[in-house]
Amino acid sequence: MSLDFDTRFEPAYGNAVPIAKGVLRLTVNNPSPFTFHGTNSYIVGSDTLAVIDPGPEDDAHLEALIQTIAGRPVSHIFVSHTHRDHSPLAARLKALTGARTVAEGPHRPARPLHLGEVPALDASSDTDFVPDLVVADGQVIEGDGWRIGTVLTPGHAANHAAFSLEGTGILFSADHVMAWSTSIVAPPDGAMSDYMASLDRLTGRDDRIYLAGHGGPVTEPQRFVRGLKAHRKMRERAILERLRAGDRSIAEIVRAIYRDTDPRLHGAAGLSVFAHLEDLVGRGEVVCAGVPSLDGTYAPAN
Predict the structure, then answer these.
(1) Fewer CB in a 10 Å sphere around the end CB: N or C, the chain?
(2) Taking the model in full, what pTM does it have?
(3) C-alpha angle with apex 272: 268 to 275, nearest 5 degrees?
C-alpha cells in the first residue's frame, strides 16, 4: 500500500481559513520539524462556537482566535491531547470566554515508568491541563447547531482523542493521522501497540475527510490510514532485519534505516524505533537485557 505525503499547505498565520461549512482553521506561527508549518486550531459553529485545540502559549494566536470569535459565545474548548503545541492556550481562552474544556483526561504516560526512566518528551507535555469535562469513547457533546463526537485514538499520546463533527463526515484527527508526515510515537508518552490499534479503529469508520493538527486535510482517509499501517509494518520488518544482521542498539538501527532522513529528526526516529522495539518485545519477537529502553541492547528472539 503506497503512502503519499502531501506537504502543500498555506498556513495563513493570523487569518481564519474556511475549511467547510461552519468550520474555520487558524494556524499558529510555531513551525518546526515536528509541527510542520504550525499547530492548527479549528473554530466550529456560527452562533455559539466550539474551539478545537487552542494551541500553545502564543499571544498573537490568542488575539487571532479572539478576533475570529468576534464576540460570539464559546461553549466548549476541545483538546485532542496534552502536548504543549496543542493544549496550554486553553486556560487563557477559557478565562476570556467562560467555555468548558473537554478532553479524554489529564496528561499521563502510556505505561508506568521504569525505575530511573526519564521520559524523552517530558518537556513537551502539558501537565497543568485538567479538563472540566472528561469524555469517554463515543460520547457526543451537543452545541448550538453542532454535535461533536469523541473517538479515542491513543498512541501518539495516551490521552489522544480525535473528534468527529457528527453528520458531516469530518474527523478532526489531530496528531494521530496527518497528511504531511507520520505521527511520532515515543514511549512512555505513547505506545506503538496503542497507535496501531487506533489506526485499526479508524479503518472501521466512514469519515470522508480528516482535518489534522498540522498541515492540510487528509482527503482519502481510508486509503491513507491503510498506507500508514503498511508503512509501520514495513518499518517493523526493517528493524527486525537490522537485528538479524547484527545491530544491537537503537543508534545502529537508526543510522541504517534512516540514513536519508534529515539528521535533525534522528532523535525522533530513535524514539520511533524504541516504540517498535518495545512492542516487539511485548509480542515476544525481540528480546532485550532488562526492560526495553533507549539505550538497551536488543536481539531477535530466535
Answers:
(1) C
(2) 0.96
(3) 140
| Kind of pairing between the strands at 74-78 and 100-103 | parallel
Report the alpha-carbon distance of residue 82 to residue 92 in Å, rounded: 15
CA distance 294 to 302: 22
Q: Where on the phi/psi map is residue 155: left (φ > 0), alpha (ψ -120 to 50), or beta?
A: left
List, in sequence order, the alpha helices (H) in the chain: 59-69, 90-97, 192-203, 221-244, 250-257, 266-282
Beta-carbon contacts of 142 under 8 Å, excluding residues fewer than 6 positions away, are none
Residue 1 pLDDT greater than 60, yes or no: no
Question: What CA–CA distance (Å, rounded) separates 242 from 126?
Answer: 35
Give the C-alpha separation, 56 to 77, whole Å. 14
- What digits encode the pLDDT tens for the residues 175-225? 999 999 999 999 999 999 999 999 999 999 999 999 999 999 999 999 999
